[in-house]
Amino acid sequence: MPRPDGWDARAVPGGAAVTEGTAAGTESTVPGAAPGTAPHSAADTTTGKAADAERGAGAPLTLDGGAGGEIPFRPLSISEMLDGAIACVRLYPRAVLIPSVAVTVVIQVTVSIAAYFFVGRAARDEITPDWMIRSVGTQFTLGAFGLVLSALGIVLLAGLLGPVVGRGLFGLPVSLRGAWRDLRPRSARLAAVGALITFVPLLGLALPVLPFVVFIAADVHPAASLLAGLAGFPAGAALMVWLYVLLVLAAPALVMERESVGGALRRARTLSAGRWWRTFGTLLLAIMITVFMGLFALRIPFLLAELIFFGDGGGTEALPALTLDTIGRIVSWSVVLPFDAGVIVLLYMDRRMRREGFDLELRTRVHESAAAVPAGDADAFFGHWRPERSDRPHRSDRPDPAVPPHGSGTMP
Fold first, then answer.
1. What is the C-alpha to C-alpha distance for residues 371 and 12, in angstroms, rounded to an integer?
2. One-letter-per-residue 3-state SS of the chain
3. Among residues of the chain, what percentage have pLDDT more than 70?
4. CB of 367 within 8 A of CB of 3?
5. Which pLDDT tens digit goes with each residue over 36-71?
6. pLDDT digits (tens, 9 = 90+) for 238-284
């Protein structure tokens, strides 16, 4: 198949240049060798170049920089995103789990301190029906508080894991120090974006519920309060989910594209446009897996130990029981939070590939620059992830992740 002009030499991230005439079966013309034959070294060179040519012609780039790896460098299916999130934890445990443990310790210790002062101290006194009624509301509030902090932690980890996954796709070294070096210039902005992604959906939940709260506080007729609640709570929940899915891709966009806070939020809306339901379904499936892994697979042993050693955890045993429960939550959430964060990062990359043809564009950029990405050059690495807004080709979503759109003018 003839190649377009300028495509006789290619370079891909993590690979070597590929030159014309190195396909398998091409005869070598080495001086002193019979036609159709070549010395051993030349044959090895031809074979290696043919492999690189095959790689540049459509085989996916992977975490380890070679073909056939864990995460294909192309639009991803939902199962590939879930598998890739697990592979990220397995391949880079230090760069992933150490920040996850740090974030989880802060979250769960905060929740435990709040639980001890709002529930534990009250539980030392005589348990009455009135206290039980108030305790249910307190437990619900503490549970919601913990979920909000966990959601914030997932968003922050998604910003951290963006460079980890990106460097892995390029075949570059990945380390905890390198991940922090990539994140540090954007850490304050990432905290701001994380707060917005977490609390703007909560505001969306509160607004439709506000009439119900006002009616209850003003002692309006119970029928009006009931109608306001029946309409407000479902509308608020739907608005909260819609806003979260719309904005969640801002965390990896901020770090990978070196965007501002407002620019990252705009990028998230752009990338989510037209694919909201697919993003929602992927995140919902990831949350279901998280609940199963975190609650049933990892929490149950600690809950059983707490029940055996401390019973109901009342009286003087409240603090030891809460300590053991906190350790169980730290262990479980430290494992499952990176999974959810990895899914968010892979969703971001999938949306860029489907909407903007990023995988094709990146190969073109590297080919034109005729250079791979230096392992220690952060500017060069993130430069490949910044979208070229002026002349970037706008492609519609590609239904087949393995085949580029016909007539796009760009070949993988």
1. 8
2. CCCCCCCCEECCCCCCCEECCCCCCCCCCCCCCCCCCCCHHHHHHHHHHHHHHHHHCCCCCCCCCCCCCCCCCCCCCHHHHHHHHHHHHHHCHHHHHHHHHHHHHHHHHHHHHHHHHHHHHHHCCCCCHHHHHHHHHHHHHHHHHHHHHHHHHHHHHHHHHHHHHHHHHHCCCCCHHHHHHHHHHHHHHHHHHHHHHHHHHHHHHHHHHHHHHHHHHCCCCHHHHHHHHHHHHHHHHHHHHHHHHHHCCHHHHHHHCCCCHHHHHHHHHHHHCCCHHHHHHHHHHHHHHHHHHHHHHHHHHHHHHHHHHHCCCCHHHHHHHHHHHHHHHHHHHHHHHHHHHHHHHHHHHHHHHHHHCHHHHHHHHHHHHCCCCCCCCHHHHHHHHCCCCCCCCCCCCCCCCCCCCCCCCCCC
3. 67
4. no
5. 444 444 444 444 444 333 333 333 333 344 333 578
6. 999 999 999 999 999 999 999 999 999 999 999 998 889 999 999 99
Look at phi and psi of residue 27 and say left if phi exceeds 0, alpha if psi is from -120 to 50, else beta: beta
The residue to which tokens 């929740």 are assigned: 111
State the distance between the two ends of the chain, measured CA to CA, in whole angstroms. Answer: 14
Contact criterion met (CB below 8 Å) for 343 and 251: no
- Model's pTM, two decimal places? 0.74
CA–CA separation, 61 vs 14, rounded Å?
Answer: 8
Of the candidates 211, 276, 217, the one whose C-alpha atom is nearest the C-alpha of residue 243 is: 276
Q: What is the spatial distance between Cα 69 and Cα 62, in angstroms, rounded to a whole number?
A: 5
* Whether the Cβ atoms of residue 294 and residue 284 lie closer than 8 Å to each other: no
Cα separation, 329 vs 322, whole angstroms: 10
- Cβ proximity of 238 and 331 under 8 Å: no
Rg of the chain over all Cα atoms, to the nearest angstrom: 26
Q: In whole angstroms, how far apart are CA 358 and each of 25, 179, 335, 336, 348? A: 32, 22, 30, 29, 11
What type of residue sits at position 201?
Answer: P
